[in-house]
Amino acid sequence: MTGRAIAAEPIVRRGVFRALLRNPLTAASLVVLALFAVIAIIQPWILPYPPNEVNLRLTNAAPFGSDYLLGGDNYGRDILSRLIASTRGAFQAAAVLSVVAVVIGTTAGLIAGYYGRVFDSVASWLFSAIMAVPAVIILISLYTLLGVSTTVAMAVFGFLVSPSMFWMVRTLTRNVRNELYVDAARVAGLPDRRIVGRHVLIAIRAPVILMIAGLAGAGIAVQAGLEFLGLGQAGVPSWGAMLTDAFGNIYVAPEQLIWPAVALGLVTSAFTLISIGVRDTLEGTYVKPSTRARRREIEALLGSAAAERTLGGTADAATATTATTSTSTSQPLLAIDGLRVAYESGGSLTTVVDDVSFRVEKGEVVGVVGESGSGKTQTVFATLGLLPEEAIVARGSIRLDGRELLGLPERDLLEIRGHRMAYVPQEPLSNLDPSFTVGSQLVHGIRAQSRATKKEARDLALAMLDRVGIADPLRVYRRYPHQISGGMAQRVLIAGAVACTPSLLLADEPTTALDVTIQAEVLDLLRDLQTETGMGVLIVTHNFGVVADLCDRVVVMRSGRIVEEGRVGDVFTRPQHEYTRMLLGSVLDNAAPREASARRKAAHA
Ligand SMILES: Nc1ncnc2c1ncn2[C@@H]1O[C@H](COP(=O)(O)OP(=O)(O)OP(=O)(O)O)[C@@H](O)[C@H]1O
């Protein structure tokens, strides 16, 4: 089965509702909410007794032992009937509050965030003023002084809490407004109405939904709280008023507290869980299931060996299943055998790395080339043990100096990463933390990998900055990432990667984000460092020029599989696969493949 054969459907297209049903918690919450919503609608027809009807004979009657199924309250009214009759009021409160807050807050937030200018200033000022108003005190005054209905009170409360929605939507919209695809939509001539509806609103919908559900739950809780304080409408049953009655009766019939509390707890937590589920589904967030559930899932998809490997089972198991695929007699630095990485979505699998096997010998530079999405980065991340949690390492083995890496606990991987193998990423500036100086990040990395004191780590960091060709190491050491150029940032990352003399360096398109002249300098630097230290290098690139310049051997990947592998000279002069020929045909310059140096040959020996 290949990635092409198993086309996984995106979760959003399958529908949010189906995704919610797959998660037991959100499915249960949906059932609870649906049940209460149905009860709210049909309650006039299913009430066993009128909710305010008094039967003194059944005052404080015990549950399940009289005409009243859940017992009678201290006035002799049927608790079940009052519980059912309160449902409509609770849902009304939730709906009114969230609709008012969403309509006011979202509309104003979208306009202020998208257009800015005067509307933004005025709206920000107004919503700040509304925020300063003590909402609960206003509500209490409305009830006591004006005797308004719960619906009006909730509408006022919705208005008073709308600033929280306004600020969130405004901030999110301002961020999205600056995205390149929004600029592109403007350039394409789309009217603002369409841009806001199609691009902005879609991008910010997940947190908005989360807040709506939060508001709905808050509406129910606030209404119950006010009723609990005795501020509700007399004669209209509510869960809050039931709690007040039960509280006054706590020494006589404490069980009367249970029913309204359970109803309130169930509905408010169902709103919260569903909103989290919707957010996760819309954003494609991976919700980590328990290890046992994940094991069952993977076993169902692939069988038990993959579950062992993915969830950190014994490394021996992984080695045993794949040892037979190893053909090399000497111990290579890195040996990847039959690696298969897949992602599950909705019960189907997408294989992104399929049966990948290759070696990196000590002191050797191996390039992995291929089009975008061919699985290069996934192979590197599998080696580093940095695949996302949802990834399934379905089969295979990755050994560093003979030690199996797949299935190693994170503690052991931490000792290997940075120390035995290091990584140089593609986007230098996004891989440096903007909150810390270059120096403190280097020192932190060095100290995590060695027993160096702070001073030793500082000296080593400065020496490494000097070694990677930074003219004024101390100045760069003290700078923040935004104060240095992309090329300098890549040098800093290379300095950090090689500081602890790893035996294997994994570089994922280390020059792609840099301009052409800097690319050449960074490649020179990598070549020099490799020659000096004798480390093995696995370099991912789109560019056959980089391969010609730097590598001894090349692995060509397409759609998750290796289509060709060989010494650079051979692949350049006699490419076997049509796809390799096509890639070579797209190389603009005529860079000659590098001949292996005598030193490298010595290192192999
Ligand atoms: N978390 C994920 N869930 C599902 N699929 C993923 C995930 N991460 C990566 N993929 C898929 O794995 C495939 C291989 O991705 P990979 O990043 O390895 O490609 P690549 O060859 O490095 O491409 P590029 O050169 O563009 O970085 C892609 O089709 C990608 O969509």
UniProtKB/TrEMBL annotation:
Chief place of localization: membrane
Q: Which domain of life is it from?
A: Bacteria
Compartments annotated for it: namely: Cell membrane; Membrane
Q: Where is the ABC transporter domain?
A: 334-584
What the entry lists under CDD domains is as follows: ABC_NikE_OppD_transporters, TM_PBP2
* Alphabetical list of Pfam families matching this protein: ABC_tran, BPD_transp_1, OppC_N
Keyword annotations for this protein?
ATP-binding, Cell membrane, Membrane, Nucleotide-binding, Transmembrane, Transmembrane helix, Transport
Q: Kindly indicate whether the keyword Transmembrane helix belongs to this entry.
A: yes
Membrane topology qualifier? Multi-pass membrane protein; Peripheral membrane protein
SUPFAM superfamilies per the record?
MetI-like, P-loop containing nucleoside triphosphate hydrolases
**Any one Gene Ontology BP term:** transmembrane transport
Gene Ontology MF annotations: ATP binding; ATP hydrolysis activity
Q: What are the TM regions of this chain, as residue ranges?
A: 20-46, 90-115, 122-146, 152-169, 200-222, 257-278
> What GO CC terms are in its UniProt record?
plasma membrane
Positions of the ABC transmembrane type-1 domain: 91-275
Concerning InterPro entries, the annotation shows: AAA+_ATPase, ABC_Ni/Peptide_Import, ABC_transporter-like_ATP-bd, ABC_transporter-like_CS, MetI-like, MetI-like_sf, OppC_N, P-loop_NTPase
The UniProt entry's sequence similarity note says:
Belongs to the ABC transporter superfamily.
Know the name of this protein? ABC transporter
Q: What organism is the protein native to?
A: Jiangella anatolica
